[in-house]
């Protein structure tokens, strides 16, 4: 049965964490590149674009659910009894799922934001994408922010006129997984792009008045390319001047093609603390005269989630903050490392918030795991579960 026969819209598997509250619109499916060695997301699925007419039907379907739900909103509150009654009348599970999704977006999400899925929607013909953007603006006039993923080499190929058309049609922000600014690292991980494309693509996006949000993976070059990864990544940040730099500390995933890279030799996964030193090194090479956006560590995978701020003013603070952690006694650092890798959401000064018994167990493990490889394996066991 076709999805649209059941008054439902398609939803892809992921969105950036900063789009957790956005409505999700699936414009393309899966990834047109699909070769990055660290990535396990779409490996079993082929890429295809969706016909514009189908995507527009999905937008209409979302707008219909929004209107139906808002009919039960009066005097600042939802009539949950009639919402539940309406929900029960939906014939298919897909419809129920879509209704729930729009309800959650209306009640808990960002009612002004839509994210276009999947991995590289910018690969779509610009006039098709513009038509979709205009339809979103037509059916959702309340929307203030439309965002999408786009690969660096795709971004480098799009003509300035097309960017201008997309901006005019309503595209506000592009998220791009640059991962590293080092050509050596990009080749190693089969990213299918170059530093030059990253800079050209990033500049084109910003010159069109579209915000650029780029992601880097400190540690992805391993011990061998740590220095290169830090310095060349900072170079891309300085030259592209993105609005946002988002850090995603690299972790070698069990079952990923990075295991082959490691097994082939010449690449050794850096220790957790070495990855933090690489972050420090990268930040130290950012030129506040050139880079004016924000750094964020908005993911549990980063050891120090507080590292962030405006690049033109907060770099000294970020370096001091990292240094104050590095200056702690070894045991204190280890205690925090383990707690953090187990999911502790705050910084090391807040460890007292843990239950005494949990803290005692953490301290015991930190004290009694003398072998560094055992220690890293323990941390990795927790890190491996984060996406
Ligand atoms: S471009 Fe993105 S989604 Fe595609 S393989 Fe690389 S990391 Fe995965």
What does this structure look like?
The chain is of the alpha/beta class. The chain has 3 domains: 1-149, no CATH class; 185-327, no CATH class; 328-387. It contains 15 helices and 12 strands. It has helices spanning 52-70, 80-89, 93-108, 126-139, 152-157, 160-169, 183-188, 195-207, 226-240, 258-263, 272-284, 315-326, 330-341, 356-368, 372-383; strands at residues 23-26, 28-29, 48-49, 73-74, 77-78, 113-117, 145-149, 173-179, 211-216, 244-247, 294-296, 309-310. The chain has an 8-stranded mixed β-sheet. Strands 2-3 form a two-stranded antiparallel sheet. The structure holds iron/sulfur cluster. The site of iron/sulfur cluster has 11 residues, from loops.
Highlighted features:
single chain, 387 residues, alpha/beta, eight-stranded mixed sheet, globular, binds iron/sulfur cluster
Quick structural summary:
It is built from 15 helices and 12 strands.
Helix/strand layout:
Elements: E1 23-26, E2 28-29, E3 48-49, H1 52-70, E4 73-74, E5 77-78, H2 80-89, H3 93-108, E6 113-117, H4 126-139, E7 145-149, H5 152-157, H6 160-169, E8 173-179, H7 183-188, H8 195-207, E9 211-216, H9 226-240, E10 244-247, H10 258-263, H11 272-284, E11 294-296, E12 309-310, H12 315-326, H13 330-341, H14 356-368, H15 372-383
Parallel strand pairs: 1-6, 6-7, 7-8, 8-9, 9-10, 10-11
Antiparallel strand pairs: 2-3, 4-5, 11-12
Bound molecules: iron/sulfur cluster (SF4).
């Amino acid at each position: 049965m076709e999805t649209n026969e059941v008054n439902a819209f398609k939803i892809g598997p992921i969105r950036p964490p900063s789009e957790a509250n956005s409505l999700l619109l699936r414009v393309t499916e899966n990834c047109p590149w699909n070769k990055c060695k660290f990535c396990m997301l779409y490996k079993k699925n082929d890429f295809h674009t969706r016909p514009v007419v189908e995507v527009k039907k999905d937008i209409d379907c979302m707008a219909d659910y929004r209107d139906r739900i808002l009919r039960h909103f009066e005097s600042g509150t939802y009539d949950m009894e009639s919402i539940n009654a309406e929900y029960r009348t939906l014939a298919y599970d897909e419809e129920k799922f879509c209704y729930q999704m729009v309800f959650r977006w209306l009640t808990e999400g960002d009612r002004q934001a839509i994210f276009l899925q999947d991995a590289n929607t910018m690969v779509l013909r610009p006039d098709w994408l513009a038509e979709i953007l205009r339809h979103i603006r037509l059916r959702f006039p309340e929307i203030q922010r439309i965002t999408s993923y786009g690969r660096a080499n795709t971004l480098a190929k799009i003509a300035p006129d097309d960017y201008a058309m997309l901006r005019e049609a309503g595209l506000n922000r592009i998220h791009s997984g640059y991962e590293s600014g080092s050509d050596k690292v990009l080749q190693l991980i089969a990213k299918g792009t170059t530093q030059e494309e990253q800079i050209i693509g990033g500049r084109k996006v910003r010159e069109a008045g579209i915000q650029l949000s780029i992601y880097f993976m400190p540690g992805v070059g391993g011990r061998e390319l740590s220095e290169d990864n830090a310095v060349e990544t900072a170079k891309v940040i300085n030259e592209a001047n993105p609005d946002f730099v988002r850090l995603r500390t690299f972790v070698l995933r069990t079952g990923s093609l990075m295991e082959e890279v490691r097994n082939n030799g010449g690449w050794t996964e850096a220790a957790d603390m070495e990855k933090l030193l690489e972050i420090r090194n990268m930040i130290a090479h950012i030129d506040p005269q050139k880079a004016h956006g924000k750094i964020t560590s908005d993911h549990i995978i980063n050891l120090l989630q507080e590292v962030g701020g405006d690049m033109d003013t907060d770099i000294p603070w970020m370096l001091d903050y990292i240094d104050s952690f590095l200056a702690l006694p070894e045991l204190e650092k280890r205690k925090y490392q383990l707690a953090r890798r187990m999911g502790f959401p705050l910084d090391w000064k807040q460890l007292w918030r843990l239950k005494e018994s949990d803290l005692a167990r953490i301290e015991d493990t930190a004290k009694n795991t003398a072998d560094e490889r055992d220690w890293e394996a323990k941390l990795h066991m927790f890190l491996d579960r984060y996406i």
